[in-house]
Design goal:
heterodimer; A: 414 residues; alpha/beta; Rossmann fold; Dihydrodipicolinate Reductase, domain 2; 2 domains; ten-stranded mixed sheet; 12 helices; globular; disordered N terminus; B: 308 residues; alpha+beta; T-fold; three-stranded antiparallel sheet; 18 strands; 28% helix; 25% strand; disordered C terminus
Chain lengths: 414, 308
């Protein structure tokens, strides 16, 4: 064995050891592949998120999109182009009535304030339901959805993607096993340069399409974007914040809007630690990430990627000697790679630096596998309700510019 | 694609134009996620991994892309072929060089690409086949963006991907056409575009390496020989459809057999070879007037051959 061969062998062996020790690999995740008949699915809401969902569904095995529903004809047409053979509907009640048992599961991607009616109708019709996050624009609606999900006995998933994302699951196992040690700081951001305005081909649809800019309906940046990221910290810590402080304003898109285009939120936990979160539609630098920093390491999560930045006095773990690393200015991050076992055995650890699919793909796969087998999805109604409550209160804090206590009773389904 | 797209939208309401432009760019980003050969999770990667064993369903837009590719392959007598993926990989243009080049060359052949319009599905008639839509992808993305713009009533716009694929909607206010130079050289002709697409393919500009480390220059491959074309060839096409313009300009780099006599004629074509460091556009064809044509600069040495 040459020195080069030996290094390669050791890299494979140590990579495999680390992966076997604590992490399930990608291939071991539940899926619908191998079903005799594909699981029939309907999508309700074919806007931006709905179309992204359809794009991911066509890459999943064992699924058939049998119907697409949207009240706007242009969006429906666009959705149907991504779902060959599916039937189109402009009314979800008609879809549920006509298709009956021909649909097993329903994916809801309508505007947030319309979730309650669609979700509860689908559950009443006996369907398994995946609902995009946040669950609703009011605590009352979110509770109603969670209660209906619990009462239905059907599989219900909230689209909080961190919980089903393989690289987030992997990084969480490091966090939970003490790699970060004493948590000192939590930060997150979602920066993108975008107007958040949706163009309408028909002026009469302008208001309905731009619900995110309607202060009466919108949960703003904290609710619509932040809820996903807040839940990553809920998931990692296994607890929820006790108070929230916020501020924000319209600093870039001065087009008469009232919903802040830039916002910051501080979520404080019972032990006094805080998550500082910022979002802006005026700048895209560093995009979207979450960061947990502790006395031994920091873990940075960026949806398709994750890294661990170790302190100089952190103990060395054998696997990391040969791990892939990336340099960020003065810091070197150890790349956390899902499916390391298989990649290491193939000598392809470097190729697996990022996830092959989007986070949305894994969330849908997780739900559909649970629906197909009657199992439990990674994120159910209870987690969805709690994250939604935090998102709603964060938006209220930004709007008021003040601090709000988070009553744990608000997390209860009732 | 992995390239920069830019849009110029001409109109009155800046806020609305920005929103429409963002929607068009979203369509382009979605297209990238669908057809990129670099993303293991793309739909194209799924097709390449599965289609030799089973029919793989694709969305209607991707099916249109593959149908257009097949049409241009037929009319160009094989000079354009999206089944060139194994050769592109073996030559090192899709990451580290992989696979035996001779085997890869034998695998190419669009006759083995089967398309089922009823089910919007794709299948390979033999193993070893692979799709690489690099020669048509930017045009496809521009067509998807055009749909968004047209749906929202935009009538004057210029879009480009990587400066080599251009799509014009209408013309700038007060002008007959958008004017696009084919290169930085003073002698490069101008393309005049109104509701038309321009594509320029150039054989040089990129290098890669074979598995043994030997360099490969020129990223346009002749599908029939499986060899990368030598540096210094350029072809430009004006067409009504950006996908077809892309594919035809790639084919014209290889040979002009077939493309010029295609059932659906292109609007104008030009071909250049480098001499003394400068691209000399020695064949420029198309109408002498009208909104969609090539216009020679006053000091250009070429003569314009009218097809009228």
């Amino acid at each position: 064995m040459t020195p080069s061969d030996r290094r390669q062998f050791l890299a494979q062996a140590t990579g495999a050891l680390a992966a076997f020790a604590i992490h399930p690999d990608l291939a071991a995740r539940p899926s619908l592949a191998g079903r005799d008949e594909p699981l029939p699915v309907a999508l309700i809401g074919a806007g931006r998120q709905g179309r992204a969902i359809l794009s991911e569904l066509q890459k999943l095995d064992g699924v058939s999109v049998v119907a697409v529903c949207d009240v706007l004809a242009g969006r429906l047409r666009s959705g149907l182009r991504r779902a060959q053979g599916a039937r189109g509907y402009d009314d979800h009640e008609k879809l549920l009535a006509e298709l009956g048992d021909a649909v097993d599961s329903v994916i809801v991607a309508t505007p947030t304030h319309l979730h309650r009616k669609v979700v509860t109708d689908a559950l009443e019709a006996g369907k398994n339901v995946y609902c995009e996050a946040p669950l609703a624009h009011t605590v009352e609606d979110a509770r109603a959805i969670a209660a209906a999900a619990r009462a239905s006995g059907r599989v219900f998933a909230t689209g909080l993607q961190g919980r089903s994302n393989p690289v987030y699951q992997l990084a969480r196992s490091f966090y939970r096993s003490g790699s970060v040690r004493d948590l000192a700081s939590m930060r997150a951001q979602d920066f993108k340069k975008q107007s958040w305005r949706t163009p309408a081909s028909n002026p009469a649809d302008e208001a309905a399409l731009n619900w995110r800019l309607d202060p009466a309906l919108s949960l703003g940046l904290p609710g619509e974007l932040g809820t996903q990221q807040f839940d990553v910290f809920h998931y990692y810590r296994g607890e929820y914040p006790v108070s929230v402080r916020g501020r924000g304003g319209v600093f870039v898109h001065r087009d008469g809007r009232e919903v802040a285009d830039t916002a910051s939120v501080e979520l404080t936990f019972a032990d006094g630690t805080s998550l500082f979160w910022e979002a802006s539609l005026g700048n895209s630098y560093q995009g979207r990430y979450e960061l947990l920093s502790g006395s031994m390491a920091a873990i940075k999560l960026a949806w398709s990627h994750a890294w661990m930045f170790k302190e100089a006095d952190a103990p060395t773990q054998g696997w990391e000697v040969y791990a892939n690393r990336q340099t960020f200015h003065n810091d070197e991050g150890i790349t956390l790679i899902a499916d390391a076992t298989q990649l290491a055995s193939q000598g392809k650890l470097k190729e697996g630096v990022g996830l092959p699919h989007s986070s949305l793909y894994y969330a849908l796969e997780d739900f559909l596998a649970a629906a197909g087998a009657g199992g439990t999805p990674a994120c159910g109604a209870a987690e969805g309700l709690r994250a939604t409550v935090v998102g709603i209160l964060a938006q209220q804090a930004v709007t008021s510019g003040g601090e709000l206590a988070i009553d744990p009773e608000a997390f209860e389904i009732g | 694609m992995a390239t920069r797209f830019e849009l110029v939208l001409d109109g009155e309401d800046e806020g609305r134009l920005r929103a429409v432009g963002e929607a068009a760019l979203e369509a382009i980003e979605e297209c990238e996620l669908t057809i990129s050969p670099f993303l293991p999770g793309s739909l194209l990667s799924r097709v390449n991994a599965r289609a030799a064993e089973e029919w793989v369903a694709v969305d209607a837009d991707t099916f249109t892309l593959l149908e257009t590719a097949r049409q241009v392959r037929r009319e160009s007598l094989g000079a354009f072929d999206v089944t060139v993926a194994p050769v592109m990989a073996a030559l090192g243009f899709r990451g580290d060089a992989g696979g035996d080049l001779a085997t890869a060359r034998r695998a190419v052949g669009g006759d083995a690409l089967l398309l089922d319009p009823e089910c919007s599905a794709v299948r390979f008639a033999r193993p070893g086949l692979g799709l690489d839509v690099g020669g048509i992808g930017k045009g496809h993305a521009l067509e998807l963006a055009r749909e968004v713009l047209v749906e929202h009533g935009i009538t004057r716009a210029l879009l480009h991907g990587g400066t080599s694929s251009v799509l014009a909607l209408g013309a700038p206010a007060g002008a007959d056409a958008w004017r696009v130079a084919l290169g930085p050289e003073a002698e490069a002709p101008l393309a005049l575009l109104r509701d038309a697409a321009l594509s320029v393919s150039v054989t040089d500009g990129r290098t890669a390496a074979l598995g043994d480390g030997s360099p490969v220059s020129g990223h346009v491959v002749d599908p029939q020989s499986g060899r990368a074309l030598a540096d210094g060839i350029a072809a430009a096409v004006i067409d009504t459809d950006a996908r077809r313009a892309d594919a035809r300009s790639t084919a014209l780099c290889v040979t002009d057999a077939g493309v010029r006599s295609a059932p659906q004629p292109l609007l104008a074509a030009a071909r250049a070879e480098r001499a003394a460091g400068t691209l000399c556009w020695d064949r420029v064809e198309g109408p002498a007037d009208g909104p969609n044509r090539f216009e020679l600069r006053s000091h250009s040495p070429q003569t314009l051959a009218s097809t009228a």
